[in-house]
Specification:
Elements: E1 35-40, E2 43-48, H1 53-59, E3 85-86, E4 105-107, H2 111-126, H3 142-150, E5 176-178, H4 188-197, E6 202-205, E7 212-215, H5 231-235, E8 241-243, H6 244-249, E9 254-259, E10 268-274, E11 277-283, H7 296-300, E12 315-316, E13 325-326, H8 329-347, E14 352-356, H9 362-376, E15 381-383, H10 390-400, E16 417-421, H11 425-428, H12 430-441, E17 445-449, E18 466-468, H13 475-488, H14 494-500, H15 503-513, H16 520-527, H17 531-542, E19 547-551, H18 553-556, H19 561-574, E20 585-587, H20 594-599, E21 606-607, E22 611-612, H21 616-626, H22 638-647, E23 652-656, H23 660-663, H24 667-675, E24 679-684, E25 696-699, E26 708-711, E27 716-720, H25 732-743, H26 752-762, H27 771-777, E28 779-781, E29 825-830, E30 855-858, H28 860-865, E31 873-877, E32 882-889, E33 897-901, H29 909-912, E34 929-935, H30 941-962
Parallel strand pairs: 1-4, 14-15, 14-23, 16-17, 16-19, 17-18, 19-20, 23-24, 24-25, 29-33, 30-32
Antiparallel strand pairs: 1-2, 3-4, 5-8, 6-7, 9-10, 10-11, 12-13, 12-25, 21-22, 26-27, 27-28, 29-34, 31-32, 31-34
Helix pairs in contact: 2-3, 8-25, 9-25, 9-26, 10-19, 13-16, 13-17, 13-19, 16-17, 22-24
This protein binds iron/sulfur cluster (3 copies) and FE2/S2 (inorganic) cluster.
């Protein structure tokens, strides 16, 4: 049975097999439990009350013509093509806006209806260019289809009268064009932008014949509020809004359902293909995480996969000052194995390690950590989650007993209060941001805890949100103040606490949090947030029927990141907002497979499934399957690897799909560590910043070139399906496997499904997961095992993995990184919609049209004080480094706080971030760096060095990139 999503119900239950995600049922499903039976063309059908006649007919297999209706949009009733006859009713009601009624007798095909529909189509066609044969939508146009369906044979009105045929095309958007001459003013695009995306960028201007679709106030799409999500393009029944890739390449001829490789939402897409060329990515309605919606990244930014910068052949070199030499896979792997072995022979077993990738599949990540533990013989494996969500793992495991978010995304549709802490969903998790906006439009209350006024606070028709603009670094003080209000104002859920929580832990937490020093009044001086606002927020959260918390890196990337995660869990436990839909603790994971890379045992202390390496029984199970002893000591974390490299005890590193030189804090320190290595093996799709320090470059494969699975932020395991051959001949898992074999530790898998079978055999939360089951269910949310054979949408419904939940004491400790006379401002960092993480993928697409460079956002008062004007170059100095960015003056910032993104390597955002880190997990404190800024006229010294190093490394690469074909034979 396939999981079918119906947008109106946000249902994540399996739906009847008869529902087909590729079919448009015309209007959304009704949620009603009451059933109504009607007859359509003599065929009886029983449907929920509130279902439209159009949908009931579609469910009965009767297709009534339609143009303005679509099952992801509320019925609009403008085209009248769906007219029907209903016994006992006058006229020809539109079936899309007519709900079923018990005993209703509907007729869909009569001569009169046929004539009526032909008349309607005639009017449409008389104002439509007759260039079907050369139109890019020829063969995929609902207007064309309907003309055929209604039997239109002539257009009596002629084409001479007033028309829109000369309307100019708007080509401003890099990905789609808007040709208003083809518009039938069905309003589907406007409604998709309003109802699905929630941006309200489009309007119908004018009336009657003069009605035209307009982006904003007659602006171009690029100048309007449009965020290029593609929902309008998807909704358009004609070629008015059309992907430029289809205009260029023609219509696709086959498609494969796969999963977006950008963010932790994990949207499902149909990769629509012509041979091995992706023509467009169409969001898949059957995708349980996205329900047919998308954002600009997943929808349009796939061109990087075939970019000329792709590394297509393995390369090696003895030193980073030498040019790269193209070699065969065999030689590259033999070279790597020999280097790793000789380093271990000289410096010991612990002198090498590996870094797994949160962009790669579960299966690939599993193999890298297995390679480290089984072939390297140590536990020196870590992942980029170290620098983002490792505190989530620690904090949630400590309090709730499992290192993962508790809900489905759809759960937000049942939340009455939504608290967003240190996350920016409309930019970083856009499809979920749209769902959240939908719920806000339905009346849910919003609390945002963030130094910046983020866009979710400006949700059109979303009500007035409560913004608590706290000082960076004071999260724990604020969460304690919220909890203080809850316990001292009697807002706790005593029943839940009694039944579900550890009494002793609760009592000691309660007496700690009730202390006056944790009150909003006492904490006001620390957080900068007015006590009354904190009290209001606490009441709004605690008194809601269902209250949900969503948080991001603004929580975790602090010296008290783990403490804050526990503070959030405490809030949810104290108010009983765990274990049911509408509530929960929801970490919004950044990269596509951060959840999966953590689940797969990437951390040095945990085998897959968060099973500790020190546990003898756990190790024995893995040893029995892997056939080698596993070290019982946790290995090095990434920052420890860097320190050990500089100290000379860590000498070789295998990095799959991560760009630690750009993404990790204190760039100079990271560069020094990478330069200290005897052997750096980088497996990636481009020469990224890390690869410039490498001795072996193994071509990586994009998500389009491999099979596997990603696990999104709601623990949903989604299939990644290969749509084209890997550019260098190997999928990433095959490369790791080959490296292992070259090292003498045998690995043999024919397909990633076999790797998943091994994962399932060793990981209690995955025992029920298999590729067959994924095909059957569409996706699976772990835990999936004997107790939960179809997976677990909502966690902790009955009990916690640790039995009773554990309140944790969350003492606020101020970070060492404070504003001072020398560094009076606090810098915090984040992401923007169009770029993704280190930007190596999105910078190689037209997404850069929206964000060409990282800017420094600052409040007008801070700018005025320093004589900074918008667009000026400003030098930013912290105690560890100095960089230069262009200023962007913005009221979104609070005075005293500046902000930037880190999508462009030359910006050097991490040159200034320090190596302060979370006390429990070493997650860096990216969100708080004390800085000073001033107007400058030239790049920083680091930036100048970066540019010359980059130029040199590009020059060392170029001959290898030019030498297509035969690898260089080093033996001759
Ligand atoms: S692309 Fe998205 S945001 Fe832009 S107009 Fe269309 S629906 Fe609205
Ligand atoms: S642009 Fe397309 S979806 Fe929008 S009104 Fe015109 S035909 Fe309908
Ligand atoms: S929301 Fe995330 S997963 Fe979905 S299309 Fe955008 S980047 Fe991809
Ligand atoms: S489809 Fe019903 S009025 Fe357009």
């Amino acid at each position: 049975m396939l999981h079918f999503y119906d947008p109106s119900t946000q249902s994540h239950q399996p739906s009847p097999e008869s529902l087909n995600p590729d079919f448009d049922y015309g209007t959304p499903a009704s949620l009603s439990a009451e059933l109504v039976t009607i007859a359509i063309d003599g065929r009886e059908i029983t449907v929920p009350e509130g279902t439209s006649v159009l949908r009931a007919a579609a469910l009965a297999g009767i297709n009534i013509p339609k143009l303005c209706a679509s099952d992801n949009l509320e019925a609009f009733g403008s085209c009248r093509l769906c007219a029907v006859e209903i016994a006992g009713r006058r006229g020809y009601p539109a079936s899309c806006t007519t709900p079923v009624a018990e005993g209703m007798q509907v007729t869909t095909q009569t001569d009169k209806l046929g004539k009526l529909r032909r008349n309607i189509m005639e009017l449409y066609i008389s104002d439509h260019p007759l260039d079907c044969l050369t139109c890019p939508a020829n063969g995929d146009c609902e207007l064309q289809d309907m003309a055929g369906v209604v039997g239109l044979r002539e257009v009596r009105y002629g084409f001479e009268g007033e028309n829109h045929l000369d309307a100019a095309t708007d080509d401003s958007n890099p990905y789609f064009s808007f040709d208003p001459s083809k518009c039938i003013v069905c309003s589907r695009c406007v409604r998709a932008c309003d109802e699905v995306q929630g941006t309200f960028a489009l309007t119908i201007q004018g009336r009657g014949f003069g009605s035209v679709v307009s982006a904003g106030q007659g602006e171009s799409f690029m100048d309007s509020e449009c965020v290029s999500c593609g929902a309008c393009v998807q909704a358009c029944p004609t070629s008015t809004l059309m992907e430029k890739s289809v205009i260029d390449a023609g219509l696709p001829e086959h498609s494969v359902v796969t999963t977006c490789a950008y963010c932790g939402v994990g949207c499902s897409f149909k990769a629509e293909m012509k041979g091995e060329q992706v023509v467009r990515m169409v969001p898949y309605k059957g995708g349980a995480a996205n329900h047919g919606h998308s954002c600009v990244k997943g929808r349009f930014a796939f061109g990087y996969a075939t970019h000329e910068d792709r590394i297509k052949q393995p390369m090696i070199r003895d030193s980073i000052d030498e040019p790269w030499q193209v070699v065969s896979w065999e030689e590259a792997l033999a070279f790597s194995a020999q280097k790793l072995k000789s380093v271990q022979a000289q410096y010991g077993r612990e002198s090498i390690g590996g870094i797994t990738s949160s962009r790669c599949t579960n299966e690939e990540t599993y193999l890298v950590q297995k390679l480290v533990r089984a072939a390297f013989g140590n536990n020196n494996t870590d992942t980029c989650a170290r620098v983002c969500h490792s505190p989530t793992g620690y904090g949630l495991k400590t309090t709730l007993g499992e290192s993962a978010g508790t809900q489905t995304f759809d759960s937000v549709m049942k939340a009455d209060t939504i608290m967003v802490i240190g996350a920016n969903p409309t930019d970083a998790h856009p499809v979920f941001g749209s769902l959240m906006r939908k719920r806000l439009r339905q009346g849910a209350k919003l609390i945002v805890i963030d130094p910046r006024r983020i866009d979710i606070l400006n949700t059109p028709h979303g009500g007035e949100g409560l913004h608590l603009p706290l000082r960076p670094g004071t999260n724990v003080a604020l969460v304690n103040a919220l909890a203080h209000v809850i316990v001292t104002e009697g807002l706790e859920d005593q029943e839940f606490i009694k039944n579900r929580c550890d009494t002793e832990a609760y009592q000691s937490w309660r007496s700690f949090i009730a202390e006056q020093r944790n009150s909003p009044e006492a904490m006001q001086a620390v957080t900068g947030v007015a006590a009354e606002q904190v009290r209001q927020a606490a009441r709004l959260y605690a008194q809601a029927d269902n209250a949900a918390i969503y948080y991001g890196l603004g929580v975790t990337e602090h010296s008290q990141g783990s403490t804050m995660v526990m503070g959030i869990a405490n809030l949810a436990l104290a108010t009983g907002n765990i274990g049911r839909e509408g509530g929960g603790v929801n970490p919004l994971r950044g990269q596509n497979n951060v959840q999966g890379s953590c689940d797969m045992g990437s951390f040095p202390h945990e085998l897959p499934g968060y099973q500790h390496v020190a546990d003898d029984q756990v190790r024995q199970r893995f040893e029995a399957v892997w056939g080698v002893p596993i070290d019982h000591e946790p290995g090095l974390r990434i920052p420890n690897m860097f320190d050990a490299a500089i100290a000379g005890t860590f000498k070789a590193l295998y990095v799959q799909g991560e760009d630690i030189a750009q993404s990790d804090p204190n760039t100079q320190h990271v560069e020094a560590a990478l330069k200290s290595l005897d052997c750096l093996i980088v497996q990636d799709i481009f020469l990224n910043e890390t690869a410039k320090f490498a001795h072996v470059l193994l071509p990586g494969s994009t998500f389009l070139e491999k099979n596997g699975t990603f696990t999104n932020a709601e623990r949903r395991i989604n299939r990644v399906r290969k749509v084209m051959a890997p550019i260098a001949g190997k999928e990433d898992w095959q490369v790791t496997m080959a490296l292992s074999n070259a090292l003498g530790y045998p690995m043999h898998y024919n397909h990633p499904s076999e790797i998943m079978d091994e994962i399932a055999s060793l990981t209690p939360t995955f025992t029920g997961v298999s590729y067959d089951k994924l095909e059957q269910l569409g996706s699976i949310q772990w835990p999936c095992n004997e107790q939960h054979p179809d997976g677990t949408p909502t966690m902790h419904t009955v009990d916690f993995p640790i039995g009773k939940a554990n309140f944790a004491i969350t003492e606020y400790l101020a970070t060492e990184e404070r504003a001072s006379r020398r560094f009076p401002l606090l810098l915090t960092t984040g992401r923007i919609l169009s770029q993704y993480n280190v930007g190596s993928q999105t910078r190689r697409t037209s997404n850069s049209d929206w964000h060409e460079e990282d800017l420094l956002e600052l409040h007008p008062s801070d700018a005025e004080l320093r004589g900074i004007k918008d667009g000026d170059w400003v030098g930013i100095s912290s105690r560890v480094g100095h960089t230069v960015l262009r200023a962007h003056i913005s009221e979104r910032m609070m005075p005293g706080v500046v902000y930037t993104t880190f999508h462009h390597p030359g910006s050097g955002a991490n040159v200034i971030t320090t190596d302060n880190s979370d006390w429990a997990t070493n997650c860096p404190e990216y969100k708080v760096t004390a800085v000073q800024i001033e107007v400058v006229s030239q790049p920083s010294e680091w930036q100048r060095n970066f540019q010359s190093f980059d130029k040199r490394q590009q020059a060392l690469l170029q001959p290898a990139m030019d030498s297509v074909g035969e690898p260089h034979d080093r033996t001759t």
